[in-house]
User: Fold this.
Amino acid sequence: MLHFSKMHSLGNDFMVIDGVSESAKFNTEQVALWGDRQRGIGFDQLLVVAPPSDPDCDFDYLIFNADGSEAEQCGNGTRCVTDFVRRRGLTQQSELRWRSKGGITRTAIEDSGLIETWMPEPQFDHQSIPFCAASEAEPEVLNTALGTFQVLPVSMGNPHAVVFVDDVINLDVAGIGQALSNHSAFPERANVGFCQVINDGFIRLRVFERGAAETQACGSGACAAVAAGRHSQRLSNRVKVSLPGGKLRVEWPNAQGPMKLVGDSTFVYQGQL
Assistant:
């Protein structure tokens, strides 16, 4: 028997498993079945909390997309696992360090109940993303069957492509997002963020996540969009990000070092398989 919790942040929803207290064994096919919204539990990502592999961290956590593929980083997920381990009694610390495939993140619970996540420093060099292109031009121009698009590739511990648009509401996010996410320039695929800059402190964002399609919110995508906006001189150091599921706050004071992502975490229900 496997126990799990269903959680979300701004509608970006997760199945969360305690791999510290219980043995969590599963395969790619099982994850894809659980992730099916018609035949399974339904989620954007599966998160598995595990004992720390690094003595400087409190926990490891594994991230799997709804199609069963493994991901490196999840900003909203980090807040949910922070809430989860406290609910499960695995810790009562208000500040935690987490290791995932994308590196180390630090979380802290504010007095308001919102949770801060300090995401890894954004990386723009193509090798770190990874991104395959003939030049280091910015923005990069990618050709797809749906048209030609200017993208700014960036890594938040996982690969992102940011596309600045004039109108994010009336946009074929599913079609264009899939075309860019699966473009040969991204050998590991990419999360694609479509960003409309309202002013230097406010953006509207929709994100197509690899392995999950468009989601209600994406924390690492919000950070990637702000990083790309700072990098291209469009945004200030404190930005409110409006996503379909709600709002996040992103801060990057000196345009270097970790980024602070602030948002909520919501517990939905407990279940067992």
